[in-house]
């Protein structure tokens, strides 16, 4: 079936196709569903009896549509029942909670009024240590009982302070390594 466009009509069928980026490794799987809005085909992988082990998501633009082959019979999905107001409220509450959590995370990990290279320095430190911004200071291992280590502007090793000597030494070493790597 050359140049076939995926659709909900494919649900339950076995599809075989190649990806444009990897034409030598064809994919064969059962179609679980197709989302026309995002142009995403959802495939069932590793199905054992009635148990589905995993799904694979493939965006249609990544597919070589000229290689598509379908087999088996379609099994259109059951229509979804309408969402009740109670379910919608739970969904909105979970969404609001997730947005608030992400906003808090961003406030702690993205410095306000900080130069770009200092934010990059922070990101480098955060790869190996638990870091957050506290005003203009970087606070490392802040969940420790002693408050962790604080790095003040201009974010050099002589501005590293804290109650735990080994942690201060370690933070200084990582900080200097990041500054050398970033050439700042």
TrEMBL record:
Taxonomic superkingdom: Eukaryota
SMART domains recorded: AD
AD domain mapped to chain residues: 84-183
Pfam family, one: AD
InterPro entries according to UniProt: AD, Lsm12-like, LSM12_ABD
PROSITE patterns per the UniProt record, alphabetical: AD
Official protein name in the record: AD domain-containing protein
Organism: Hemiselmis andersenii
């Amino acid at each position: 079936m050359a140049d076939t466009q995926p659709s909900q009509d494919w649900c339950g069928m076995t599809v075989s196709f190649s990806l444009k980026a990897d034409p030598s490794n064809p994919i064969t799987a059962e179609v679980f569903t197709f989302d026309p809005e995002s142009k995403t085909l959802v495939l069932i992988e590793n199905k054992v009896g009635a148990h589905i082990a995993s799904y694979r998501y493939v965006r249609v633009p990544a597919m070589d549509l000229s290689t598509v082959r379908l087999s088996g019979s379609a099994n259109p999905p059951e229509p979804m029942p309408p969402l009740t107001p109670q379910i919608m409220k739970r969904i909105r509450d979970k969404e609001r909670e997730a947005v608030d959590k992400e906003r808090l995370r961003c406030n702690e990990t993205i410095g306000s009024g900080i130069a770009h290279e200092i934010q990059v320095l922070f990101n480098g430190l955060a790869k190996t240590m638990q870091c957050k911004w506290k005003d203009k200071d970087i606070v490392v291992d802040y969940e420790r009982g002693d408050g962790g280590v604080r790095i003040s502007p201009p974010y050099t090793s002589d501005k590293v302070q804290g109650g735990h000597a080994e942690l201060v030494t370690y933070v200084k070493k990582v900080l200097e390594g990041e500054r050398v790597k970033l050439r700042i």
